[in-house]
Write a sequence for this structure.
């Protein structure tokens, strides 16, 4: 008896080690099945889990059983297994065929003959979660000693199953959270309290060019946005949560609204991780800045012509009428500045109309590209005697578009070609070409060109290349934004090629 008890104890210790090493539920249940028969020296074993909602036992793992048997279910109280689960206590039956509690449908389906059964409930926290059975004692009959050993095994199996379920539930929830985390539109980074990056989503990876730089710590991110070390220490790793803006100019303008959220451990009450949320607010912030600066911009642009008009109007008012030279000079200045003021207002009105227009509002008609370019050339040739205007019709074609708007966009490009040209001999070429299904209208010049770093900025509203480079400060900086808008209204775009001191070519592609 002592030898048997020692062997049983050694077996249970081995079983305990094996069960505690398994966290995958499927692998664990197979292991329990294989160990069940060895614990008490049985031919085979069965394992049933309890479906609480249905009140039924089912085979979660059925080694060697036919498929139709594996699908069988037993209600609580049905068969020896159902009785064991219902009563929550072990059952020894060494004469199964004469036991009224035995349900023979498994034997009938499988062709297996059950002679003896040792059935134990698997209980965790006072609740039955399943039943484990040892079938057909190899040597003799099942005894109370077998029952004690099997109950200890069943208890260990129940704990292992519960741990595995908890682990798999946590694992599944983690997967769900990771999927949600990675798919949210805002950039998100989870770090520890030292700032080391644990995980980041796709949006954050794109914003921060993570594949290129491979940031290890959140401080690397802030250094890339020009934030000093004291900012990182006080704002990012202080006690409170914060919101702030990160802003950079290159490789493109990017403004991120950043929220720093400390995540506290419920048990300790202290932060053990930090969640960083990044939202791209570049367009919103730039629009707000433009709106704030708009009144200042208007007053600045209107101030010079209005000062001249008012000043010379005062001189005329006070003039005795005999100083014809002064009258002439004042009249010319008033007229000139009035023209500039009128042009500023017209440009603002034109842009506002284009900005608020939709594709449905276009007045589309069919017209010849060559005819439109020749018309524009003639209008400018009459008033610009210091500029040579040419047309180059590589291929004439018919356009179906809003003629007035297309003409307005081309004239804006011509105005720029003349205005931003310091050469004594100015040349502007208007050309038309069709290629690969695209119709292209181009305005080229021999002017000052555009610096490479400015090309991506010049189509922004109110943007102007620095006056020290262009020699110009007049205008709103709305002309190219309007050209871009008109092209887009027609389903097209604007392309530009430029070389410093050699000229530029703007192409409306439709």
């Amino acid at each position: 008896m002592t030898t048997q008890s020692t062997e049983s104890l050694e077996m249970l210790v081995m079983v305990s080690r094996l069960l505690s090493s398994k966290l995958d539920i499927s692998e664990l249940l197979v292991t329990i099945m294989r160990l069940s028969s060895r614990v008490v020296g049985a031919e085979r074993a069965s394992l049933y889990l309890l479906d609480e909602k249905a009140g039924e036992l089912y085979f979660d793992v059925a080694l060697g059983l036919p498929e139709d048997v594996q699908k069988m279910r037993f209600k609580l109280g049905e068969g020896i297994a159902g009785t064991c689960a219902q009563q929550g206590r072990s059952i020894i039956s060494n004469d199964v065929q004469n036991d009224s509690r035995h349900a023979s449908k498994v034997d009938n389906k499988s062709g297996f003959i059950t002679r003896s059964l040792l059935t134990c409930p698997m209980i965790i926290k006072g609740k039955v979660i399943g039943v484990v059975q040892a079938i057909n004692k190899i040597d003799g009959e099942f005894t109370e000693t077998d029952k004690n050993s099997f109950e200890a095994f069943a208890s260990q199996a129940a704990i292992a199953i519960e741990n595995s379920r908890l682990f798999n539930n946590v694992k599944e929830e983690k997967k769900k959270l990771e999927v949600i985390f990675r798919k949210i539109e805002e950039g998100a980074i989870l770090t520890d309290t030292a700032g080391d990056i644990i995980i980041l989503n796709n949006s954050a990876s794109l914003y921060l060019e993570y594949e290129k730089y491979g940031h290890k710590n959140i401080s690397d991110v802030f250094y890339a946005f020009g934030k000093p070390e004291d900012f990182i220490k006080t704002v990012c790793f202080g006690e409170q949560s914060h919101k702030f803006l990160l802003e950079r100019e290159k490789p493109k303008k990017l403004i991120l609204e950043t929220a720093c959220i400390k995540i506290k451990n419920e048990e300790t009450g202290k932060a053990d991780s930090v969640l960083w949320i990044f939202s791209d607010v570049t367009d919103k912030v730039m629009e707000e800045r433009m709106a704030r600066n708009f009144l200042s911009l208007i007053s600045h642009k209107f101030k010079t012509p209005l000062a001249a008009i008012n000043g010379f109007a005062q001189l005329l008012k006070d003039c005795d009428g005999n100083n014809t030279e002064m009258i002439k000079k004042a009249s010319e200045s008033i007229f000139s500045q009035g023209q500039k003021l009128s042009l500023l207002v017209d440009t603002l009105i034109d842009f506002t109309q284009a900005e608020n227009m939709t594709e449905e509002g276009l007045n589309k008609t069919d017209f010849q590209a060559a005819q439109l370019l020749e018309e524009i050339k003639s209008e400018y040739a009459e008033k610009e005697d210091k500029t040579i205007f040419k047309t180059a019709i590589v291929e004439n074609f018919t356009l179906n578009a809003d003629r007035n708007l297309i003409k307005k966009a081309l004239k804006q490009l011509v105005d720029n070609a003349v205005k931003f040209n310091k050469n004594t001999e100015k040349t502007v070429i208007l050309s038309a070409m069709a290629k690969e299904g695209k119709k292209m209208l181009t305005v080229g010049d021999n002017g000052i060109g555009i610096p490479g770093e400015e090309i991506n900025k010049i189509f922004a509203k109110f943007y102007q290349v620095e006056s020290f480079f262009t020699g110009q400060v007049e205008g709103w900086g709305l002309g190219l934004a309007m050209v871009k808008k008109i092209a887009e209204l027609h389903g097209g775009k604007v392309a530009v090629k430029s070389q410093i001191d050699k000229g530029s070519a703007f192409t409306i592609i439709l």
